[in-house]
Amino acid sequence: MLVSLNPRDARPLYLQIVDEVRRAIVLGTLRPEDPLPSVRELASQLVVNPRTVSQAYQELERDGVIYVKRGQGTFVSPNVQPDDRERRALSREVALRALRDARRNGLGVDELVKSIREVAAEEESAEPASAAKQGDRE
């Protein structure tokens, strides 16, 4: 599981961890019954106090997103299924961050949307070429 924290984010670190776990579930990176890193392991990876990770895990457990099996670890709850509402919320969050960043850099909405479309088109046209290169290596 890949969790990244943003030191410039005003939210407490434990909430960033909570959001990253939820995001991984929405994106399908984490699925029901998948194990999560131990508190110590994740704290070490993120270079944060283990209490921060423990606080995040406690909140996720309270919300029914994860559960703890004594002596075995922490797992994604079996009944957790991302819904369209969560996916839309994630999409809006990404859009809001992009818009704020664009405005901070003096760009308007139209410029941002145009650039996103251009980059997406470039990425899509580059994918078959990179897939072909991968096939050549095999």
How does this structure look, described?
This protein is mainly alpha-helical. The protein is 62% helix and 7% strand. The protein has five helices and three strands. The protein has helices spanning 13-27, 39-46, 50-62, 84-104, 109-137, and strands at residues 35-36, 66-69, 73-76. A three-stranded antiparallel β-sheet has the order 1-3-2. A hairpin with a 3-residue loop joins strand 2 (66-69) and strand 3 (73-76). The longest helix is centred in the last third of the chain and has 29 residues, at 109-137. The radius of gyration is 19 Å and the shape is globular.
Write a short abstract of this structure.
With 138 residues, this protein is mainly alpha-helical. It contains five helices and three strands. Strands 1-3-2 form a three-stranded antiparallel beta sheet.
What structural class should be given to the helix and strand makeup?
Answer: mainly alpha
Proportion of residues in helical segments: 55-70%
Arithmetic mean of pLDDT: 87
Helix count from the secondary structure assignment: 5
Low-confidence stretches: none
The neighbouring-strand order within the major sheet is 1-3-2
Beta fraction:
5-15%
Apparent shape: globular
C-alpha Rg (nearest Å): 19 Å
| End-to-end gap | 27 Å
Largest β sheet strand count, sense and barrel closure: 3 strands, antiparallel
Can you write the helix and strand succession as a string? HEHHEEHH
Per DSSP E runs of 2 or more residues, the count of β-strands stands at 3
